[in-house]
Amino acid sequence: MMIMTNRKVYPIPTRLNLLIVCGQIVCFFAVMLATSLATQWWQIGFLFVTFAILGNSIYSIVHEAEHGMLHPNSTVNDVLGVLMAILFPAPFHLIRQGHLGHHRRNRSDDEAFDHYFDGDHPWLKWLILYGILTGFYWMLVVLSNFAVLVVPFLFKRRFFEFDRPSAAFMDALNPRTFWLIQIEAVLAIVFHGVMIWSFDIAVWRYALVYFGFGYSWSAMQYVHHFGTEREVLNGARNLRFIGWIDRVWLYHNWHLLHHQRPNIPWIYLPRLSEQQPGPRESLVWHYLCMWRGPRYTTRRIQEPPSHVFSTVDGQDV
User: Fold this and answer.
1) Is residue 1 domain-resident?
2) Fewest C-beta in 10 Å: which of 127, 212, 274, 315?
3) Does 108 map to a domain?
4) Given this model, what pLDDT does residue 6 score?
5) pLDDT for the residue 163
6) In the predicted model, what is the mean pLDDT of residues 131-156?
């Protein structure tokens, strides 16, 4: 069935979103300025944690833009998405296609990182899952800024036949947006280079503080799905963390609700939870559970047909 959203019932909170964007930008530059001035290890540690919280909040805004829910004007929505994704740093149109593809492939054989099948390389599945758990996945996304410019020919399925999820991601990339992805990659590289130079930030301090966000973002990319039922809309869970952080992250941990209603803006998710009560388990506990690694299975789940989904800017949600 089609997932439809009544914008009269669930209007995009435009003014609030714009206020959040402005606040995040101010906080971002404050953290980078503090990083340039930090001299003690405890200061670096504090900024590591601070930017882990702030960076995931910034990504939550990018996530709204990925679904076309940051601003009702699609052009403004995408411009803001590009702007905020630069702080990730990542090309917006690359991570958008990856995320919307995730909604389509969720818990299918094309995206079951907690399982391996006949014909798979178990060691590769373990490596990928532990890469997600330890921040390496975020590093790959950051390196994509350089890859799309230096080795763009690698973004083809034939180079990733050894790994089904990667091959499925390459299949889903829209070649008509590749020039946009390259421009966004240049903007991200130039922005961060100029910022490091103008703020006189030691590269190792910049990298360490940024990794606070990178590690936490990467670690949470599968925690809402690990061990859930193999079903595209219901294969997720709502998790709980520290209350005020949950709000700063724009209720991103209401993840099952988001997958069931992907075109509902973030602000309405707690209200929806009242209509559909269910358990909210510990995010930390489920993160620790993921360390048990992937398990062998013979159950195969194919990607559902495209008519199950609504679209955002021509992309399957």
Assistant:
1) no
2) 274
3) yes
4) 67
5) 87
6) 96
Q: Does residue 199 fall inside a structural domain?
A: yes
Residue range of the domain that includes 139: 14-303+310-316
Yes or no: say if 252 and 60 are a contact pair by the CB < 8 Å rule.
yes
List CB contacts of 222: < 8 A, sequence separation 6 or more. 113, 114, 129, 132, 290
Q: Measuring CA to CA, which residue among 260, 269, 262 is closest to residue 66?
A: 262
Dihedrals φ, ψ of 239, to 5°?
Answer: -115, 165
State pLDDT tens for residues 242-264: 999 999 999 999 999 999 999 99
The pLDDT, as a whole number, for residue 314 is: 41
Torsion on CA atoms 171, 177, 178, 184, rounded to nearest 10: -130
pTM of structure: 0.92
Indicate whether 239 pLDDT > 60. Answer: yes
Reduce the DSSP state of residue 133 to 3 states and report it: helix
d(Cα 119, Cα 60) in Å, to the nearest integer? 36
Q: What's the residue count for the chain?
A: 317
Q: Is residue 53 part of a domain?
A: yes
φ, ψ for residue 303 (rounded to 5)? -65, 135
Q: How far is CA 217 from the centre of its chain?
A: 7
- Roughly what angle, to the nearest 10 degrees, separates helices 14-37 and 41-66? 150
Distance, in Å, from the CA atom of 106 to the CA atom of 167, rounded to the nearest integer, reads 15
Please classify residue 41 by burial: count the beta carbons closer than 10 Å to its beta carbon, then call 0-12 exposed, 13-18 middle and 19+ buried.
exposed
Dihedral sign (CA 52, 57, 60, 61): negative
Count: domains in the chain: 1
User: Is there a contact between 201 and 35 (Cβ–Cβ < 8 Å)?
Assistant: yes
